[in-house]
Design brief:
This protein is an alpha+beta fold. It has five helices and seven strands. A seven-stranded mixed beta sheet has the order 1-2-3-4-5-7-6.
Length: about 170
Amino acid sequence: MDIAIRQVAPAEYDTLGEITAQAYLQDGLLDFGESDWYLGELRDVAKRAAAAEVLVALDGEQVLGGVTFVPSGGPMADLATAGEAEIRMLAVARAARGRGAGEALVRACVERARATDGCVRVILSTQRTMHAAHRIYERLGFTRTPERDWNPIPELDDITLLTYELTF
């Protein structure tokens, strides 16, 4: 199977938004389930596409998943600063997992980062339970950076995001 990676088309925003939302919901990654405020962010591909580069993985015309690539600490960055790109909201539909879409999306982000003037590193945040994603990152040469781990909701002390980086 050939997986194609390209920028998301506006006609695919709803599909990718729902794939992303369902991936997070089905994997138990949202502390408040269907009522979690972050669910709206995951579904809002148009907002992400206006502020960053949103990529999709396709098998023919079928959207398998997507990722948000934030070059050089742009407005969608959680942690990236000058000289760093950030990967956010990587998600693959449950039915499409194990086919290489997630890895292809991460590789595409790394390629874009390498092609970005002044970019020396790609960073990302991940939840402790995202073991399949961790394996992809480590296989591609990312290393843990525990000194950058952070909590997106400080009032809830049990949410710590792990960070990884790839320096080139």
